[in-house]
Amino acid sequence: MRKRNKTDELAIQKASYGVDGLKKWVIDLFYGRASQNYRLPDEIFELWLAEVIGAYEKARNHGDRQRIMHKILHTREVVEAGMDIMEGEKEFDWDRYQVVSVCLLHDLARFRQALLGAFSDEKTNFNHAEEGAKMIEKTEWAPLRYLGLDQRVIAEAVRHHSRMKYLGDDPYVKLTRDADKLALLRYMPYLIKEDAYPKGGVSSKVLTDFKKGLMVKNDDRITRADIYVSWACWESDLFYRETKDRYVNEGIKTWIYEALKEMTGEDLI
Predict the structure, then answer these.
(1) Domains and their CATH numbers in the chain
(2) Collapsing DSSP states into helix, strand and coil, what is residue 125?
(3) How far apart are CA 167 and CA 239, in angstroms?
(4) Nearest CA to 240 among 117, 120, 86?
(5) How far apart are CA 178 and CA 172, in angstroms?
(6) Are 250 and 268 in contact (CB under 8 A)?
(7) How many other CB atoms are found less than 10 A from the CB of residue 75?
(8) Over the stretch 70-90, which tens digit does the pLDDT of each residue have?
(9) What is this structure's pTM?
(10) Is 202 left (phi over 0), alpha (psi -120 to 50) or beta?
């Protein structure tokens, strides 16, 4: 598991930055941290940042600003996770700019969705992955061409990053899906609200899907234990050995199953 910077957490809680303050915070997140293990294409970063700032300027309240800042921090964590996976998967000849670009842009439409009051595609009637892919497809991005980036692949990675299953074979789409899951799992203690779901055992439908190695649908989650089981199911949807190794070696798997045992009194492994 990873620890977030307390200053970042406090900044998100307050969500009091003006546009200039937000820009400084974002630049520090992506360029000023000692742990940085990537090089962002400046042109792609500027395109992404323009979308972020555009949404922030339209934010109507504290909640809108918080959602945008949460997604900024998550995006940085996905970029780091993507680079970690890439570094461990040596057999593929990765384009580093392509890796960092798909990770940076994977949640591009979330910033617009933040203004709708929630990060739920169902509640907002806004499919963030599909909308993000369309944004990329419709934009004439000259930097994609001269940097050698594949606009079609980037759009496909955004479109499929959060779907229940990906049956294609593009390595960058697979990496984006893995990086998104790994980033979320690394920081879940910061993201889960313990009172968001009632206490109780694992629902029968969720337990059945878990035993079959299937992904759990959001609508089927009823209890807090169901949430943790749904995360445990993500292991079956990881593509790369490096991601799977990190899931175990970083203590994520142990944390999930120990939490489930504490909640249910049962050992699900």
Answers:
(1) 6-189 (1.10.3210), 192-269 (no CATH)
(2) coil
(3) 11
(4) 86
(5) 10
(6) no
(7) 25
(8) 999 999 999 999 999 999 999
(9) 0.94
(10) beta
